[in-house]
Amino acid sequence: MTVAQGHSGGLNWLLDDLVGRVPAVRQSVVLSVDGLMMGASRGLTQEDAEHLSAVAAGFQSLARGPGGSSVAGRCGRRSSRWSRRSCS
Fold this sequence. Notes:
Low-confidence stretches: none
Number of helices: 2
Radius of gyration: 14 Å
Shape: globular
Largest sheet: 2 strands, antiparallel
Number of strands: 2
Strand content: 5-15%
Structural class: mainly alpha
Mean pLDDT: 77
Strand order of the largest sheet: 1-2
Helix content: 25-40%
């Protein structure tokens, strides 16, 4: 079962386009500030998209960490990248 279109369908086509245009990208997920999955590219199951959103939310929380209070009120962007390497 892949990610349902639902309310996030407006972002799914955009993420599919991103994945199609950027050679190194295989899948993409957009999440809200509180870690809820807002959209996902084709090929991800609902469960996998929500899992990746939760992992990314954890990384965002760690990135804000102790320095988070010093940047209060500033707008910023964070990006996380994971790669899967073969064990051969």
